[in-house]
Amino acid sequence: MNTKISITATIILMLFAVIGTAQNTLTTDKGVVINGIKWATRNVDAPGTFTANSEDFGMFYQWNSNIGWSATDSIISTDGSTWVYNWTGNGATTWEVANNVCPAGWRVPTHVELQNLIDAGSTWLTINGVNGRLFGSGDNTIFLPAAGWRSRFGGTLRGVDKWGDYWGSTESNISDVYFLYSTNGNVAIMLKDVYRLYFTSSDNDARLFNVNRGSGYNVRCVAE
Hints:
Layout: H1 3-24, E1 32-34, E2 37-39, E3 60-61, E4 68-69, E5 106-107, H2 111-119, E6 122-127, E7 130-137, E8 140-145, E9 149-150, E10 157-158, E11 163-180, E12 187-200, E13 207-211, E14 222-223
Antiparallel strand pairs: 1-2, 3-4, 5-14, 6-7, 7-8, 9-10, 11-12, 12-13
């Protein structure tokens, strides 16, 4: 075989190997164990993928939905749909397996697991110009960027670099009123709120609170 051709073929194979490895890293994660729970080191980006870096925002999701929404000013969805401001999570009581946005082997954490992460302690800091909180201690830490959130009323982007919100998969014990709008009139239904982890630049630590299903928040996965 011609030496030049052989070298060129080798280089091409090496490039494909590098590209393949880069693509695979978006669906796998080494994870970090904190208080006995294995956490992904990066946010969910498009459904079934992680972001490239721990400080990347990823995408926002409404609760129990597998439609991702951009974390930039222009609101763009992964399936071309429009924002649903009266989203109810299909009335589910837990984030359904069919709507799991995490890569294979990972899932949305429960409120107990979120509280476990909060109990590990956290510090507000900046990594590569991105604000957020570092959870855990020593070598067992994960960084959650302060990506802000999308309001349930039209999906307006808010709180970027100042606020972090991350979904839990479970219902709270607080009931909320949801209004479903249709051509036949408005219908009010009662649903319980769901849990999420949140923090701001002015907080001393993260907290666990309940919230309606319609806002757009980030997802940080735990291992199944």
